[in-house]
Amino acid sequence: MVDKMGVEATDIGRTGRVSEDFLRQLAGWGLTTAEILYRMPDHPSVLQSYIWQEYDAAPHFPILKKFLTFWREKLDGPLFSVRIGHERLIRPAEIRTIAAELRFH
Q: 20 to 30 Å CA-CA from 66: which of 1, 79, 81, 85?
């Protein structure tokens, strides 16, 4: 498998080069998922769903904003809504573990 920089996954260990996505994670970026609902151009009363995923920086989401600007300028389906999930918005590490378990019969 070849990443965005043209490096095969097996080359990372040999050459010391890492993927662009890994470098972004080290810089504080995280995987962002957006569920985009848009209206069908020929049938405006019908909504279609599109899932978009990319590494982006919360809370400003510059990559997602660039994609949505492209969508509004170049694509025919008008946006209806966008729901965003990002590791800094929702993360399992924020769940506290309990020290004891009590059982009631």
A: 1
In a domain, 102, yes or no: no
Range of the domain at 36: 9-94
Q: What is the model's pTM? A: 0.65
Query: Using CA atoms, how far apart are residues 28 and 94, in angstroms rounded to an integer?
Result: 17
Q: Which long-range contacts (CB under 8 A, 24 or more apart) does 48-56 make?
A: 48/77, 55/21, 55/24, 55/25, 55/29, 55/30, 55/31, 56/29, 56/30, 56/32, 56/86
101 assigned to some structural domain: no
pLDDT tens figures, 24-52: 877 878 889 999 999 999 999 999 999 99
Domains identified in the chain, total number: 1
User: HSE on the CB side for 58, CA within 13 Å?
Assistant: 14
Q: Are 32 and 63 in contact (CB under 8 A)?
A: yes
Which residue bears the tokens 């590791």? 87
